[in-house]
Every structure is written in structure tokens, then in C-alpha cells.
What we know:
Blueprint: E1 7-10, H1 20-34, H2 40-44, H3 51-62, H4 68-86, H5 98-107, E2 112-115, H6 121-127, E3 136-138, H7 151-160, E4 167-171, H8 174-182, E5 186-190, E6 201-203, H9 211-215
Parallel strand pairs: 1-2, 1-4, 2-3, 4-5, 5-6
Helix pairs in contact: 1-4
The structure holds 6-O-phosphono-beta-D-glucopyranose and magnesium ion (MG).
Amino acid sequence: MEHTIRACIFDLDGVIVDTAKYHFLAWRRLASELGFSFTEQDNERLKGVSRVRSLEILLEIGGVSLSPEEMERAAARKNQWYVEYIDEMDHSELLPGAERFLDELRANQIPFALGSASKNAVRILRRIGLEDAFDAVIDGTKVSKAKPDPEVFLLGASEMDVPPENCAVFEDAEAGIEAGLRAGMFTIGVGDATILNKAHWVIPGLASISWSELAQKTR
Ligand code: BG6
Ligand code: MG
């Protein structure tokens, strides 16, 4: 049976906005307080990864171990600094083509959801003026299992009332592509084709896609 695409689900960080630079600044500050350095290359390992898991990786890099209470405090401090950065964001930080593509979907009556691991997703949507744009917003406050678990995308499909096999997922992280595949969805990698090679299709960014092209993709 052929599955046509009837709805889209977007990851937020790295697809709609480039927040990795703010995560990096906040994690680097924490690393520096703990007495080790943290590079942009190290930061690549944290893309798409939950806050708690990110902290574990960071501590592994620094060879530091903390008690559960210290870890909780460290994650809270990092988040406080991160929130200070995102509170300075505005509409100009939308990645190229994002708003145009969402408008195009809307004009074609294609529903779309957000599927993000971030607990700050709604705050970011507000800052960039997209708080009312999505038909469903599934974020880190609504899911219990992190990507590559498909929970976040399955919830998005169910809130839009569209079967998973008719959804397309846009993701910049390998774990997110894996989650989309496990959800039985058409997966679109946004970024580097050599890293996102498991995706059904890879595009450099939303600026290079049109609904008419996507609508022709079936499995
Ligand atoms: C993902 C980011 O979208 O959200 C990760 O790619 C981040 O880098 C994760 O760790 C959790 O975000 P937050 O805002 O809840 O700390
Ligand atoms: Mg991402």
C-alpha cells in the first residue's frame, strides 16, 4: 500500500531555530565552573539529546563525577543561563525558509506539529512569534521517553489525528531520525547527508523544500 504525506512534524532545535549555539555557551560555562574545557566539537554530541543525558556526556568529557543532588543543581544552573540567552531571541532567529514553508503547508491545509525534546520549546516559540502556528506542540514536558524513542512523534500524529504512516518528520539529529523511523513515518534529515544517512530524504535546510515536491514522496 502506498502512504501519502498528509501531515508534518518538526523538531525545533536545529530545524526551526539554531539554539545549539546557546546550549553550547551555557554548557561551556558549566564546564568552566567545574574546571575543564568544552569545545564546539564536544557540543555536537549533545544535539537532540535530553538535558540529563547531555549533562552525563559533559561530565564524562570532563572526567568529573557528581552526586545526584549536585547533578540536579548543575542542570538547573545550565538551564538558567540557557534561558537568559533564549529570552533575547526574536523572530529574526528563525532559520531560512522555516516560516515560508510553514505558510505553504497551511495554504495547502496540511496540519503540522512540533516534536521537540526541549522543556523550553514553548518559551522559544513565543520568542520567535510562532506560539500559535502549530496544530499540536509536543515537547519535553509532555513525553517520558527521549528520542530515539518514537513517543514524541506518535503523540504529535495522534493529536493531529493523522496515522503515523501519513506523517513526515523533519529532524537534524540522528536520534530524531531513528525516532521517526521507529514511529513508521517518512523521515527528512535536515543537515548533513553523511550523518543523517538513515533518513528517507536529506535536505540542507527548509529553504530548499516545497510542499509540491514533498507531496510526491510516497512509500
Ligand atoms: C533538544 C536539543 O532539542 O532539546 C538538545 O537538541 C537539548 O541539545 C534538548 O539538550 C533538551 O532541551 P532543554 O531546553 O529541555 O534543556
Ligand atoms: Mg534538533
